[in-house]
Amino acid sequence: MLSVKSKSIHLMLAFAMVVSSFLFVTSAQKAHASLASGSKFLGNVIGSSVPSNFSTYWNQITPENATKWGSVEGTRNTMNWTQGDTAYNYAKTNGMPFKFHTLVWGSQEPSWISSLSAADQKAEVIEWIKAAGTHYSGAEYVDVVNEPLHAKPSFRNAIGGDGTTGWDWVIWSFEQARTAFPNSKLLINEYGILNDPTQAANYVTIINLLKSRGLIDGIGLQGHYFNLNDVSVSTMNSVLSTLTATGLPIYISELDLTGDDATQLARYKEKFPILWENPNIKGITLWGYTEGQTWTSDSYLVHSNGTERPALTWLKQYLSGSTTTPTAPAAPTGLTATAGNAQVSLSWTASSGATSYTVKRATTSGGAYTNVATNVTSTSYTNTGLTNGTTYYYVVSAANSTGTSANSTQVSATPAAGSTGGGTGTLVAQYKVTNSNATDNQIYATFNIKNTGTSAVNLSSLKLRYYFTKDSSAALNFYADYAQIGTSNVSGAFASTTGTNADTYLEISFNANAGSIAAGGQTGDIQIRVAKSDWSNFNESNDYSFDGTKTAFADWSKVTILQSGTVVWGSTP
């Protein structure tokens, strides 16, 4: 029989072992195998559920939509925290920083707020911010005001308006947030900054107003593809220097880079180190990573079957400090050719590791081939200026810094007058999905108009129509998220129609400042969104113009182009 002293010693040892085991288990739970380690986090968004492989890659969490005011309080005085709690509880259980996104934003605000009196609007905003602060008191970060330069809230006059500073409503929002979230770091968040030094200077004006009042703890910079895909490294570094001069830390809040495998990989290799290696950037949050679940379709990093795209494979190697011996890419597969009027449209499947492609043509099967396009960075190409009635034979090769692949399998096509690939005349509409989810609450699409003729075409004479079903009686809203010709030069309107799988069309117009499309030129990306006023879901799967498989630009005859009121491309439903 043990003595009292022995019992005490054994009890102490047992207690120590239990505590040690508990600490070990807790540490093991939190020591997830994310890509980033050290002082910087590499996070991602969580939607309605947590992907099983989330902690394999990421160690910070932002709810994608669940903590936006319109999502939480879609019905006045009825709060729905369910999906936000999913992300928050996972973050707390796994020791990951949680960012609340967002308190005050002109988009996805509750539809009912705009109809209230100014006094009631102010009271509701105060109530919302207090409720969020109470429910998520442990949030490490809070996006207080989102996109103040681009998406001012409808109720801003009720909370101070421009005021004497020009940004009183922003200052008021941060004052409320400082009280509601006393233990959180308060951030501002904006897009269109990293690619635009002028906008960066405007952003700094707001930031310094907040800093002088002790209201802001960090700067959020969105890094969406429409700003970062083609921005130069020198511009990025210049903007980062401007923001670093404020003395505040920077957080990259919504990073996504798009393209086929080769293009996306090249963009990650060029842009990500600029951000990650900047000492003032304290964390990076990507905006989705799983195929079919990202807001723009070709930004994903993991296929739906769990396999990784080359950009993610490289990212893992880069963050681990390991290197691999590069190899030349394999020959492209899936090459197809579609004949048109004096043209042939080609498309193919991306080759892993490729950074560019060469298109080769012959008039005899098997060659000899001549190069008709080099340094092509997409997986499609339209060869124009051809002779109708002549059969053309094509192959494509892939290349990177290591070498060039063998040629793809040969394909052929014979252009013919009247065979326009879905249109007439010299204008071609190209389309790709920027979010292939057919049942969410927004329609996303990106268009490109090509001029295959020999004369310039004024954009103000053109209209582009996209056909779909409304699926409800709610009013529709149009958003131009990005346009190479300038979003201010693009407008959208809706009209009723009849036909197969369509009761409505979106008509996109261009003002005089949009300029013209040169002979052989194109508009470049025109990225749009459509949402209902009540933010209810669409069902795009049966829409005439929707095609969820078109993740890269392709000529698309189910979008029409009108020139001076006459359809010159495409077929109506």
Automatic annotation (TrEMBL):
The keyword Hydrolase applies. Pathway: Glycan degradation; xylan degradation. This is endo-1,4-beta-xylanase. Residues 47-318 form the GH10 domain. InterPro entries: CBM2/CBM3_carb-bd_dom_sf (IPR008965), CBM3 (IPR001956), CBM3_sf (IPR036966), FN3_dom (IPR003961), FN3_sf (IPR036116), GH (IPR017853), GH10 (IPR044846), GH10_AS (IPR031158). It is an enzyme of class 3 (hydrolase). It comes from the Bacteria. Its EC number is 3.2.1.8. The active site is at E254 (nucleophile). Residues 1-33 form the signal peptide. Belongs to the glycosyl hydrolase 10 (cellulase F) family. Keywords: Carbohydrate metabolism, Glycosidase, Hydrolase, Polysaccharide degradation, Signal, Xylan degradation. It catalyses: Endohydrolysis of (1->4)-beta-D-xylosidic linkages in xylans. Transmembrane segments: none annotated. Residues 328-418 form the Fibronectin type-III domain. It comes from Paenibacillus terricola. PROSITE patterns: CBM3, FN3, GH10_1, GH10_2. Residues 423-573 form the CBM3 domain.
